[in-house]
Amino acid sequence: MGHKTIFITGGASGIGRAVAERFGRAGWFVGIADINEDGMAGTAALIPAGFSSQHKLDVRDRAAWDTALAACAAASGGKIDVVFNNAGIPIGGRIVDVSTEEVERTLDINLKGVIWGAQAAYPWLKASAPGSCLLNTASAAGIYGVPGGSIYSATKFGVRSITESLDAEWKDEGILVRDLMPGFIETPLLDHAPNRQSNEDIRGRVTAAKLEISPVSAVADAAWAAVHGQKLHTLVGKTAKSLAFAARWMPGGLRKQVSGLGRPLGG
């Protein structure tokens, strides 16, 4: 079979769905993985018939990763060219206000899930190298931490580190490793509360802070460019680009600006 295959976690909605549609439109076979079966079916409906498969996957379950990837390869014709480590959840608020369960769940999904995904993806990507790719969803929160973002930023700094480490570790085997670093993106996650003690959704805080919300299609296009380009980190949106510029060229000013924030964004 001449087509290529991408396996996407968090494929039932948001960034995962947009990336699935983008690659499907380009003729790729798309393995859609999520815990939301109805959402996966909705994503599959956006992809040409016969060019997708659906796999119920909790990214916290290491063994389930092996099962899902093997099933995707069997459905697609035997190989996987790209694994998109995208599944993630939001969390925000002062570190003393988030519960133990919320912290552990975020670390397990956003960070450990990416580690398990990298481990499980490796043999498939090695088999389809050179040019195969592990693509991770990091965040602008992995550039510089802000008040109310300590837990989420910790996971996304971790994803950034994993990307950089594996880029060097797998280079000689022909496997590309890339990540996306979006700012605030128009997805259903914006309508979640940042933590259980909050009665305001994330969208309200972003709007109040006068930060831009980028269309999800921008992330899909960035994912395509990342897989086919040379950039290790791909910034998406004005917030991410401004933050990266300030962190590199004006770190003192950025620190002062962040320290002067009154109300934590995630609080």
Short description:
The chain is an alpha/beta fold. It has helices at residues 14-25, 37-44, 62-76, 100-128, 150-169, 202-208, 216-228, 238-249, 251-259, and strands spanning 5-9, 29-34, 52-56, 82-85, 132-137, 175-182, 233-236. It is globular.
What sequence of helices (H) and strands (E) makes up the elements?
EHEHEHEHEHEHHEHH
- Average the pLDDT over all residues and give the rounded result: 90
Structural class: alpha/beta
By DSSP (H or I, 4+ residues per run), the number of helices equals 9
Just name the CATH architecture.
3-Layer(aba) Sandwich
CATH H-level homologous superfamily name: NAD(P)-binding Rossmann-like Domain
CATH names the topology as Rossmann fold
User: Percent of residues in beta strands?
Assistant: 5-15%
State the major sheet.
7 strands, parallel
How many beta-strand elements?
7
CATH class bucket: Alpha Beta
CA-based gyration radius = 18 Å
Describe the protein.
This protein has a single domain, classed as 3-Layer(aba) Sandwich (Rossmann fold), CATH 3.40.50.720. It is α/β, with parallel strands linked by helices. About 45% of the residues lie in helices and about 15% in strands. The longest helix is centred in the middle third of the chain and has 29 residues, at about 100-130. It has helices at about 15-25, 35-45, 60-75, 100-130, 150-170, 200-210, 215-230, 240-250, 250-260; strands at about 5-10, 30-35, 50-55, 80-85, 130-135, 175-180, 235. Strand 4 (about 80-85), helix 4 and strand 5 (about 130-135) form a beta-alpha-beta unit.
